[in-house]
Amino acid sequence: MNLQSCNNNTVKQVQLEIEKSVKFLNEYRWIIDAYISDFFTDGHWDRLPAGWTNGLSQLAPPDLAFLLDSSLPIPYRKDLPLSLLAFRESTHALSLNRQIVDLENYQVGEGLFSADSDKERKAIVSPDSGITIQTQARADIQYGQYLPLNACFRANVKPKKQHEILQLGKAIQLLGSQCGCVHVVDVGAGKGHLSRLLAFGYGFKVTTVEAAGCHAPKAQKMDRAIQKKIHRKLKRKHQTDQDLHVDTNSVESSKEDPTVNDKTPLCMPDHVTCLIQPGTSAGKFLEVVKDSYKKQTDCSEFEEIERVPNEVSSNRFIGSKSKDSESCPNNLDWEKRFGTSYTKKDFINSLNIPSNSVNVDTTIIQSKEQVIILADDNPRPGCSTCDVEPTQSDSLPDELSRTSLSVPSDQTKSTLPKSTVPVDLTQFVLTGLHACGDLTPTMLRIFTQCPNIVGLASVACCYMKLSCTGEGTEDNTDDVGYPMSQFTRNISDSHLSYEAREMACHFADSYKERLIANPPSLKLHCYRAALQYIIKQTYPDFNHGSIRLTIKHAENLSFESYVKSALGRLGLDTDVKVQVMQQAKSYLPYLQNVVAFYTLRLSLAPVVESLILLDRMLYLYEQGIPSVLLPIFDPALSPRNFVLLASRKKSTDIKTS
Length: 657
Description:
Elements: E1 5-6, H1 11-27, H2 29-32, H3 44-47, H4 50-56, H5 61-64, H6 82-93, H7 106-112, E2 141-142, E3 145-146, H8 159-179, E4 183-187, H9 193-201, E5 205-210, H10 215-243, E6 270-275, H11 282-296, H12 332-338, H13 344-350, E7 370-373, H14 398-401, E8 428-436, H15 439-449, E9 453-461, H16 486-489, H17 498-503, H18 508-517, H19 523-538, H20 559-569, H21 578-585, H22 591-602, H23 605-622, E10 627-631, E11 642-647
Parallel strand pairs: 4-5, 4-8, 5-6, 6-7, 8-9
Antiparallel strand pairs: 1-10, 2-3, 9-11, 10-11
Helix pairs in contact: 1-23, 8-9, 19-21, 19-22
């Protein structure tokens, strides 16, 4: 499916795609809801058409990969029925194109975020459109770090998250430029890794909203650490310029680095602890943002400071300037060095920047944490798939620590409002990176109800945590996570089961690579299904879905050793009857069938995800706001790679159909 925008020209096509997806998924609902561990106990293979089983049983794991990738050829000289080939083509046709978009291509900014309201927005993002690129983000990961991202922003972040915050930062920069907005509210910010890039790298004013109160102090500590790194980098650069007798006023004529003379604000993010739940009104949410806005008004008029070039000529360091909020006891390092009356002038002097090049009339102050609860219910537990474990970058080689964030080309580079223009922080862009479950739909509803929010950049996650119709939510369908649009709700049998939503989060691109590599670990599918037979024969009432079974290096174990280890981890008796063990071992030769069924089921995952995302686009359209879905992450590195972008300034010509 190449369609990835929803406006007046494409709404009918979006509705048609949703209808076809619902009908297709209902046709194969039993496959979606089937657990691979029940392959032998529930007879999944026997439920498939005979032509499918005959054809699939001939395919080795590398041959099965064609089901997950439309670019792979159909296996040669295999007796595959036309119905199976039609199934494969349908899954690809009903899935959004996941090939990453080049955010630095001028067509993205001019087409998707055109300032000309009469200009038709690009509705097609395909390999032939010229704005997609072939990329392998993993190739840029060395020494455990994603090198295109500035070293300042890589500390304590895994490479996957480093790639994500860099790409989403570029998308928010485009959106903020189109909306004329310099204030970003980051919901579900965690420890604030994205917010630091937006504030220190792109010059946005940032407010973070996070439910876990323990994250705010850690985020503030990281903010100050990165701010100090930037200050030291500026100081070293300007000291070098003085040693070389370089006139900083003549730098703008330099042809080696055209971004040397760009100006960008640097203001500490304001971290707010607040629980956002379904039912949270736009008014209550806006109160949180306004309270944060009041604390940042002293920082609302941007002074300018020279952006400093990076040591590596091919990559450029986004420069800095600093203004925090009120004096904070956590800011002891600044007070110890400069005293409580430390001003912008002191900071400028510490960097050896000529005093006539900047304004120096603003005192630097440090933001405070704000704690607000907007709902009485207990917060949901954190999502294990989104948690980021810290990684260390301090011991990296010098050449890696010098690598910095690449600045977009002149064709896509946009300029934030200058210091001569008062900045209205009451208008802002709302964003969330992999906001779990119902948090993303709640953000969309708040966006549609709050005129102060002029833009949206949302990356979803954890679809299995969505509340859905048909699961005890009939009395309050206005707050369910799926379906959101009235059009989808009116389609019969449009609900998605927990199994379908959970499968939509699976890593299909990674599994395709596993099939091609055909590692020994694939046999664990068959091991687990045979183990399920033993468990059901011995403990028929055991709830196998309540525990996630993980055994390290299980592919190196014999089946008997695997069963003993697994039963022990499940708290069950490890002694198995001889007859039951023999029957379970008789299933092991059918490994190829188990892998084929798992691949068949996994090929439906992108269809489910596409349906959820298109439903959200259509919901925004029904509220009078067009939107765009863009794949901005490398899917091989980050499976949830779509960002939903919307601009309220594009909503004037939309009429709900």
